[in-house]
C-alpha cells in the first residue's frame, strides 16, 4: 500500500509519459485506471519535456523510483542514446515508445507494433497486399507489423517520394507515387499520416472516397476523432474499418505488462477511452 504521509497517500512507484506536447494524451486515463484496477500503489503522470530538456529528464529517471515510461513525439528516436539497450524490434523500427527496467538496465521497446497487430490478428483475415500511406515513424512501426504478418505484397506511398524511398530501402518494400496510389489499390490500406486528426486537418483524408477498392480493409492509426473522414468514406464504400483506438489500447496493454507483469481487459479499456473522447 502507499505510504501514508499525514493526509497524503504517497505512491510507491511512478510511471509516466514524456513528450512535447502531452496535454491531449489519454495515457494517464488509461494507465491510472489500469493501476487502480490491479490494486497497485503506483501513479502514472505526464511530463511535457522540451527537446533541450530530454537529457535532464533521463538523468532524473535513473534517480527517481520510476518504473517505466511511455515516449511520444518528438523523443522516440532521440531517447535511444540515453538507454542501456533496445530490443531487436525497436531497432528495426528505429524508434522506441516504451522504457522499462531489466535489473539495473534501462531498456527501450516499441509496443506500437503490438498495438498495430492486435486488431488485425483479431480479425483472423489474411491479406495478400497492403499499402502504407505516409512515411514517418508510425509508418515504420506499421511496416514492421505487416512484415511480421507475412503479407507478400507491401507498398508505401508518401507525398515526398524521397521519404518513402528511404523507408522502402530499409524494409525491402515497393514505392508507389503519391499521385498514382489509387491505381494500384491494396487489400489493406493503412493511414499513418496526420490527415484526419483533430485540429487543422480533421476534414482531410489521404485517400479519395471514390477510389476505395471493393471489400478492402481501411486502418487509420488516428484515434481522435474516432471516425475520421478516411474511415467514414471507407465504410460508405463497403470496406471493413479499423480505428486507431484499438492500436492505442493494445500498445498501452503491452507497456503495462512490461512494467507490472500484469494485464487488463482491452474491451473495458476501450470503453473507458471512448467515454473520455466523447466527454
From TrEMBL:
The UniProt catalytic activity note for this protein reads: shikimate + NADP(+) = 3-dehydroshikimate + NADPH + H(+)
Which residue numbers delimit the SDH C-terminal domain?
A: 244-273
Quinate/shikimate 5-dehydrogenase/glutamyl-tRNA reductase domain residues: 129-174
Q: What does this protein do?
A: Involved in the biosynthesis of the chorismate, which leads to the biosynthesis of aromatic amino acids. Catalyzes the reversible NADPH linked reduction of 3-dehydroshikimate (DHSA) to yield shikimate (SA).
Cite the binding residues for shikimate.
72, 97, 112, 223, 251
Which GO-annotated molecular functions does the record name?
shikimate 3-dehydrogenase (NADP+) activity
How it assembles, according to the record, is:
Homodimer.
Sorted alphabetically, the keyword list is: Amino-acid biosynthesis, Aromatic amino acid biosynthesis, NADP, Oxidoreductase
Q: What is its EC number?
A: 1.1.1.25
Name all Shikimate dehydrogenase substrate binding N-terminal domain ranges. 17-99
- Recorded source organism is Oceanidesulfovibrio marinus
User: Would the keyword Oxidoreductase turn up in this protein's UniProt record?
Assistant: yes
Residue span of the signal peptide, if any? none
Q: Which residues form the active site?
A: 76
What is the recorded name of this protein? Shikimate dehydrogenase (NADP(+))
Which residues does the record give as NADP(+) binding sites? 88, 134-138, 158-163, 221, 244
Give the main EC class: oxidoreductase
Amino acid at each position: 500500500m502507499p505510504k501514508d504521509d499525514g493526509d497524503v497517500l504517497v505512491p510507491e512507484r511512478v510511471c509516466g509519459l514524456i513528450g512535447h506536447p502531452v496535454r491531449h494524451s489519454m495515457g494517464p486515463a488509461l494507465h491510472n485506471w489500469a493501476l487502480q484496477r490491479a490494486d497497485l500503489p503506483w501513479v502514472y503522470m505526464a511530463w511535457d519535456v522540451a527537446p533541450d530538456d530530454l537529457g535532464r529528464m533521463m538523468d532524473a529517471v535513473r534517480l527517481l523510483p520510476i518504473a517505466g515510461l511511455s515516449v511520444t513525439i518528438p523523443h522516440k528516436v532521440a531517447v535511444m542514446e540515453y538507454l542501456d539497450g533496445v530490443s531487436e524490434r525497436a531497432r528495426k523500427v528505429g524508434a522506441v515508445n516504451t522504457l522499462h527496467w531489466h535489473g539495473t538496465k534501462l531498456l527501450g521497446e516499441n509496443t506500437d507494433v503490438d498495438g498495430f497487430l492486435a486488431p488485425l490478428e483479431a480479425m483472423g483475415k489474411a491479406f495478400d497486399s497492403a499499402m502504407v500511406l505516409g512515411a514517418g515513424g508510425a509508418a515504420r512501426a506499421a511496416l514492421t507489423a505487416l512484415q511480421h504478418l507475412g503479407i507478400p505484397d507491401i507498398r508505401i506511398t508518401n507525398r515526398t517520394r524521397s521519404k518513402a524511398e528511404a523507408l522502402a530501402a530499409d524494409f525491402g518494400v515497393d514505392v508507389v507515387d503519391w499521385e498514382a496510389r489509387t491505381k494500384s489499390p491494396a487489400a489493406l490500406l493503412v493511414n499513418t499520416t496526420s490527415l484526419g486528426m483533430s485540429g487543422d486537418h480533421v476534414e482531410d483524408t489521404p485517400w479519395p472516397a471514390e477510389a476505395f477498392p471493393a471489400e478492402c480493409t481501411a486502418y487509420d492509426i488516428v484515434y481522435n476523432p474516432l471516425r475520421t473522414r478516411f474511415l467514414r468514406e471507407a465504410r460508405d464504400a463497403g470496406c471493413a474499418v479499423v480505428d486507431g483506438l484499438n492500436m492505442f489500447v493494445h500498445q498501452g496493454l503491452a507497456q503495462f505488462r512490461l512494467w507490472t507483469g500484469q494485464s487488463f481487459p482491452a474491451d473495458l479499456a476501450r470503453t473507458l477511452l471512448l467515454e473520455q473522447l466523447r466527454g
